[in-house]
Please model this.
Amino acid sequence: MREALILVDLQNDFMPGGALAVRDGDQVAAPANRLADAFDLVVATQDWHPRDHESFAASHPGKQPGEVVDLHGLPQVLWPVHCVQDTPGADFHPALNRARITKVIRKGQDRQIDSYSGFFDNGRRHATGLADFLREQGVTTLYVLGLATDYCVKWTAIDAVRLGFTTWLVEDACRGVGLQPGDIPAALAEMQRAGVARTTVEAVLRRRG
Ligand code: VGL
Ligand code: ZN
Model:
């Protein structure tokens, strides 16, 4: 029964001042480091888009961030340009302890489809390799934290359950976008309905630290 910690998208563009800033997103770095010290297997996901990614409003003349379009058959929220491959905005937060990260999983590289989950693109057409990696490592239980609660954290945690992992959301080490009021509590409820269990940084440290 091996356990792994999954750090979702702790990247500069999701931090205050970044291109797709998540409120208080930077407050997740310190608890992420504390937890990472308590796990022998730490995986970080990284949103990693080409500059012309079709999830960007800038790729759709006349459209603004926050609008929803049909993108090759899937509903797509349009975002500001963010996490462009090999730019500082796509780097991990500078305070994040990179030395504890065993594996980095990059996602969102196909310009035609977004990838909120760390496991699959939004159409579940292509796997990122995260599930295979975790299974090879003998992992059965995941602790998920990071950004953003209502997008990449939510879909990573829900896919983890669907794939058969026992999945814990480290709720106080997540922050959300909250495009609409109520989106963050709705995401927590959706995860809970899907079978994601909820815990806190202190509870995980008491058990593992
Ligand atoms: C994310 C929107 C667009 C996330 C990534 O990390 O939650 N949200 N790309
Ligand atoms: Zn993105």
Notes: The chain is about 25% helix and 25% strand.
